[in-house]
Amino acid sequence: MATTFTEHPTIRERFADLHPPLTGQAATIEANRCLNCFDAPCMGACPTHIDVPGFIKRIASGNLRGSARKILEANVLAGSCSRVCPVEVLCEGACVMHRYDRPPIQIAQLQRHAMDFFHRSGEPLLLEPAVERNLKVACIGSGPASLACAAELRRHGARVTVFERRPLPGGLNTYGVADYKLPTADSLREVELIRQTGAEFRLGVSIGEGPGDTSLDALEAEYDFIFLALGLGAMQRLNIPREEELQASGHILNALQLISAYKTGRVTEMHGSAVVVGAGNTAIDAAVAARRLGATSVTILYRRGPNDLSAFDFEVEHAHKEGVHFLWQRIPVGIRTCADGRLQMETRSVRFEAGRLEVVPDSHLELSCDRVIPAIGQSPLEQILTESHFVVATDGRILINHQTGQTTNPRYFAGGDCANGGREVVDAVADGKRAAIGILAAAEAVNV
Amino acid sequence: MFSQPDITVRNFAGKINSPNPFWLASAPPTNTGEQIMRAFDAGWGGAVWKTIGAPVTNVSSRYSSIDWQGQRMMGFNNIELISDRPIEVNLAEITEVKRRYPAHAVIASLMVESTREAWHDIVSRAEDAGADGLELNFGCPHGMSERGMGSAVGQVPEYAQMITKWVKERAQTPVLVKLTPNISDIRAVARAAKRGGADGLSAINTINSITGIDLDTLIPRPNVDGKSSHGGYCGPAVKPIALNMVQQVMADPEGALPMSGIGGISDWRDAAEFILLGCGTVQVCTAAMHYGYRIVEDMADGLSNWMREKGFQTIEDFRGLSLNRVTDWKHLNLNYKIVAHIDENKCIGCDLCHIACWDGAHQCIHLDRVSGPVDGHVENHPIPTLREAASHAALTQTPVTRRERQRVADHGPYPTPLSRIPRVDETECVGCNLCSCVCPVENCITMVEVPTGQAPETWAERTAS
């Protein structure tokens, strides 16, 4: 597997840890604050149901190896989850300490503490090889859902091949997470542990019907089950005149392109000012990235108001701290290129009337900038599979049985963004693990 | 009404006076005159000098401690011996301290070989130096006891009585006997001391202990070149043991004498508790070793403020008031019933009371406020494991939209979702207190008396008829 990756020193410097790890003593003190609730709400709030009090008590007692293994039992990507989970609305948001007038237990930091220990130890995920079984599963996509599915399948001895169209595995964990949360190298380290369980990774392989693609029919012939973890489609376009031309010239670079470009060291600095369109979590990541890459001014343009944006509150707060400006209830309608090479973005105020977006008359405002970064969501996944292989999708999501991950075609399972419409890494991990168990059960049923 | 109470000690054990009841116990904080004078400046009322007597050589290391959940020194252990400085130096410093601090109590702690001549000699020298009183160290549990001193004396009532008698033959100042807890009934030695003529007691000395074993080297602590020795345990962890032993002695007419209470005293609350069981003064060591002499400020201040709140003018006003509140189990009222009451507005939903009651008590705190209680005389509840399994099997997703987040935040009439506020089945509750002990929230679980309508009856009364 071609996971040779060297992080760019400039990127490492500009995207240093947002939350540096706890020292050993700080972790012990924090672990001892945990009340060890019965049927703990934090555990219930976690999509992978990590035994939070269980692993925290192990940290308190100095049993770091046991702590890490307890975590990994539930979530094989616990290292990245500890860095990227929006814990404010998950485990830490559910902590009873909120009602005790105390700050919640720093669950994510404690989890990172245990996982960092585990990664330093060099231990493999599987302590002893599973008994190999004659069950072959293809996982399409190598993001968190696939990785979790592959790891769980390997634990039970199934033969797994992961197909990834990009050169590096890990999906959004590798290409799409802000580097001050999770460096690319850390994502790849986690993938490597899963590869070591015996999962085969085929990188740079596209599945589909296009030229050079591997077809689903070919996979069906070789594998017993297929797990679809395709993620979402390409980022939405702004739908303004000259968009393609400006994309080609690099003036328009969408949020995911920007994030993957700097994470792989292809972009290491940004000059002048940037306008980010959209106010979701990815928009915030892109805006902060632009600032850290050197943009002198970054403005987020959003069609609704501050009370409507979908980004988490802590993300918005972070953007403010990084010096990102917000311009509310405004949309771009056109972009001109000036003689000096800079851009003039023409915008209009908008308002929602009876659920419909209306342009406010005489609300013209021009913004000059050097770069426009669209971040208005990813389009629903393309319908490459659905019709031909009886995998039904509604509203751009593959329809699954949520308990088993099984699609309308019993040989196909699905999970992650392509099935849940776009959620967090931890949701993808939960989906992937459930699907693996679903696949194993389905295999039992048909005696594979 | 707003006058500050008087916390001075007058005529303790006959004629020892000190500006307050807070004395430093015989230990490293009272090793030298220079230290003791700084301690008096900080506010300590008295000091029992680090034990003077037979020559010794100390080892390194000497201390080890028990930390508990991130708190340092919940329990403390030492294998240090008595003063390793020349007797002459200690005595000269006693004279100097008393010259400069005439109003403070300076007690000489003594330990010499068990001969009448040796004791007569050291008693005279200590008193000539100016000590206000003597404390006979019959308690040191390590090292000295191997040489027939310390607890080797304190564990044999006859020896304790004999040496006390020898000391009293010569002593002009009050004689306190320091009792060892390393004995099956501490009253035996208290009685012996009293028979020998002691004017007072101090209790307790340290408890024999091994604090722990280093799990890397497998060597117990403290480590002296690869070996350890049993030491004397003290600090906050020993207070309940000390309180019990002080109460036993003070409630015993044959053993009770003016008592200087010792054992895990760290603040004014601890001190007040020892005084409520009859102590006239208290002695402190571990807390001063942990934080320095300055801790006495809050001890004096806090005790005075509590006394004012309670309307006590002097130490004597409340000394011993709790003594007769301790009785034999057979005299407790069997018809007194309390049950746990959970304040729904304070409950944070940790549900520790639920699991504690199920696993550690009487299975009567349930999580059924939403599902409803089970009808019938005997309630049939699913075991806690099933509830955990149900939570584990639940499908949970990150609330990514504002609407989803709002839904997560919604709950019932109390700050905690109703499903997580436990319910006490009062008919089954035995009033054991366990839930109120484990509850992390102050005053959330209170124990409420339920009138039984029955006249008080004790086990003694019930079995007498």
Task: Explain what this protein looks like in three dimensions.
- The complex is a heterodimer of chains A (448) and B (465).
- With 448 residues, chain A is an alpha/beta fold.
- Among the domains of chain A are: 136-233 and 379-445, FAD/NAD(P)-binding domain (3-Layer(bba) Sandwich), CATH 3.50.50; 243-374, FAD/NAD(P)-binding domain (3-Layer(bba) Sandwich).
- Chain A is 36% helix and 16% strand.
- Chain A contains 18 helices and 15 strands.
- In chain A, the strands form 4 sheets. Chain A has a 5-stranded parallel β-sheet with strand order 3-2-1-4-15, with helices on both faces.
- In chain A, strand 9 (343-353) and strand 10 form a beta hairpin.
- By secondary structure, chain B is an alpha/beta fold.
- Chain B folds into 2 domains: 9-325, TIM Barrel (Alpha-Beta Barrel); 329-392 and 399-464, 2-Layer Sandwich (Alpha-Beta Plaits), CATH 3.30.70.
- Chain B contains 16 helices and 19 strands.
- Chain B has an 8-stranded parallel barrel, surrounded by 8 helices.
- The longest helix of chain B is centred in the middle third of the chain and has 15 residues, at 296-310.
- The A-B interface holds A 28-29, 32, 35-39, 41, 43-47, 49, 60, 85-86, 89-90, 93, 96-97, 99-100, 308, 310, 402-403, 420, 422-424, 426-427, 430 and B 69-70, 348-352, 354-355, 367, 384, 387-388, 391-392, 394-402, 405, 408, 415-416, 420, 440-441.
Please describe the topology of this protein:
The complex is a heterodimer of chains A (448) and B (465).
Chain A: H1 9-14, H2 24-33, H3 41-45, H4 52-60, H5 64-74, H6 78-84, H7 91-94, H8 107-121, E1 136-140, H9 144-155, E2 159-164, H10 172-175, H11 184-195, E3 200-203, H12 216-222, E4 225-228, H13 243-248, H14 255-263, E5 273-277, H15 281-292, E6 297-301, H16 313-321, E7 324-327, E8 330-337, E9 343-353, E10 356-359, E11 365-369, E12 371-374, E13 393-394, E14 397-398, E15 412-414, H17 417-420, H18 425-445
Parallel strand pairs in A: 1-2, 1-4, 2-3, 4-15, 5-6, 5-12, 6-7
Antiparallel strand pairs in A: 8-9, 9-10, 9-11, 13-14
Helix pairs in contact in A: 2-4, 4-5, 4-8, 5-8, 6-8, 9-18, 14-15, 15-16
Chain B: E1 9-12, E2 16-18, E3 22-24, H1 33-42, E4 46-48, E5 52-53, E6 63-68, E7 71-78, H2 87-100, E8 105-111, H3 116-129, E9 133-137, H4 151-154, H5 157-170, E10 175-178, H6 187-195, E11 200-203, E12 207-209, E13 231-234, H7 239-250, E14 259-262, H8 268-276, E15 279-284, H9 286-291, H10 296-310, H11 315-318, E16 338-342, H12 352-360, E17 365-366, H13 384-393, H14 402-409, E18 423-424, H15 434-438, E19 445-449, H16 459-464
Parallel strand pairs in B: 3-4, 3-15, 4-8, 5-8, 8-9, 9-10, 10-11, 11-14, 14-15
Antiparallel strand pairs in B: 1-2, 6-7, 7-13, 12-13, 16-19, 17-18
Helix pairs in contact in B: 1-2, 2-3, 3-5, 5-6, 8-10
